Amino acid sequence: NAGVTQTPKFQVLKTGQSMTLQCAQDMNHNSMYWYRQDPGMGLRLIYYSASEGTTDKGEVPNGYNVSRLNKREFSLRLESAAPSQTSVYFCASTREWGTEAFFGQGTRLTVV
Amino acid sequence: AQSVTQPDIHITVSEGASLELRCNYSYGATPYLFWYVQSPGQGLQLLLKYFSGDTLVQGIKGFEAEFKRSQSSFNLRKPSVHWSDAAEYFCAVGVNTGNQFYFGTGTSLTVIP
Known about the structure:
Chain A is an all-beta fold.
């Protein structure tokens, strides 16, 4: 069972570069999420997609955009990377409200 | 606004000792509550969850948690800690607005022999 798959696992960007983090789930889940994890801050919600065709901002959306390409895939784009976006990014999915979230293995992004 | 507070940033316990990790939440209604564990360099794994019913819930790896509505708390416990329990633990709240999850800042657990 693949579950939630994130690519890439590691990435180094220069300030101002752009990139897209990919996330796919094979569990037929309705909702998908992007979080960033920073030391002492826990996981903070960047964007979420409650269902296919919808996306909404979370706690820290500035500097990011998302696309819910289809039910399986939810991508996160950094248009112009900044050092403050150095973090570990996690994608997650849930079947519906109240059910547990399944997480990918994370993407460690460094912006220099 | 919803929030989750884990007041202990770091806890150290001896192997075999009991453990309690604290979690308090702020939410207008009774939320869905979760505890996740994260080993170094890994994603998050669900330990247990509370939706309704019995306020004492059992999870994997010998963990349990108790929901106390009056205290807005959902503390995680384990009677006897093993060295393999060393990890970061996150409490989370599930809210029905857009199926969002809010996480606490985490508690790092060190287990000493």
